[in-house]
From TrEMBL:
Coiled-coil annotated spans: 188-222
Source domain of life: Bacteria
Broad class of where this protein is predominantly found: membrane
Keywords attached to this entry: Coiled coil
Membrane topology annotation: Single-pass membrane protein
SUPFAM superfamilies referenced in this protein's UniProt entry, alphabetically: Band 7/SPFH domain
Subcellular location(s) of the protein: Membrane
Protein name in UniProt: Band 7 domain-containing protein
Residue ranges annotated for the Band domain, each copy included: 24-189
């Protein structure tokens, strides 16, 4: 084997080595991700520096990069929990969360890549059981859902504080009661609604009766005042005024002065 052939062999080996080295020394971090660097000969997980951002990075081949998604993530859990009186309730809850980007190294070091199963799921389940255990099925079925959602969020957040996770929101998507309990609650609600409707109709009838009574009393008082004011002299004067107006009419008539009852004129005949 001549010198030139040996040189080509050496160059080929070096090229292969460089290709392997570069393939092991580069990492591409995608959109919505961060990379946690692990230094094999440099103290392990890097926690005192920001995680690697999106894009292309050169990394020593003996080190490793762990990729974490930093977008908002969703976790839904279907749980069987107990109400305050010991009845089983099926509940479907959802939370939104993100890892704490500034402490991604600590999250990897202390919780690991499966941190969702290790800390978030247990936190949600524990918080939900604690909150639901304070309410009766009737309260869970009624308008308490918004309050329950907020309490589950706060209880879960309290557990996840200092766990390198940012909790965004919590939602109770469905609450399923045992059929017998649900039917009993619905019957009770219908009865309460019917009672309220009856009270409304009764109140309305009472108010209408009061209105009619007040109206009748007003008319009676008005008639009393009018009757008290109509003396004989006033009536005669009104009759005379009416006679004068009639006498001005173009219709043929005969007026007998002073021949009517109480001395009022009598009008005879017209066209």
């Amino acid at each position: 084997m001549n010198t030139i052939s040996k040189r080509y062999i050496v160059l080929g080996v070096v090229a292969i080595f460089l290709i392997i080295f570069l393939s092991k020394s580069t990492v591409t971090i995608g959109s919505g991700e961060r990379g946690v660097l692990y230094k094999t000969f440099g103290g392990g997980v890097v926690t005192d520096q920001p995680a690697l951002g999106e894009g292309f990075h050169l990394v020593a081949p003996w080190n490793k990069v762990y990729i974490y998604e930093i977008r908002q993530q969703e976790l839904s859990e279907e749980m069987n929990v107990l109400s305050s009186n010991g009845l089983e309730i099926d509940l479907d809850a959802t939370i939104w969360f993100t890892p704490e980007i500034a402490k991604l190294g600590l999250l990897h070091q202390q919780k690991g890549e499966n941190y969702i199963d290790r800390i978030i799921k247990p936190a949600l389940r524990s918080a939900t059981r604690s909150v639901i255990g304070r309410y009766t099925p009737e309260q869970l079925y009624s308008s308490k859902r918004d309050i329950i959602q907020q309490e589950i969020f706060e209880a879960t957040k309290e557990i996840l504080d200092n766990q390198y996770v940012v909790l965004k929101n919590a939602l109770v998507r469905d609450i399923t009661l045992p059929p017998t309990i649900k039917d009993a609650i619905e019957r009770k609600l219908r009865q309460e609604q019917e009672a309220l409707e009856y009270e409304f109709r009764l109140s309305k009838a009472q108010k209408e009766a009061e209105r009619q009574k007040i109206e009748a009393e007003g008319k009676a008082r008005a008639n009393d005042i009018l009757n008290a004011s109509l003396t004989d002299k006033i009536l005669k004067e009104k009759g005379i005024q009416a006679t004068i107006e009639l006498s001005k009419s173009s219709n043929s008539k005969v007026i007998v002065i002073g021949s009517g009852k109480d001395g009022l004129p009598i009008i005879l005949g017209d066209k």
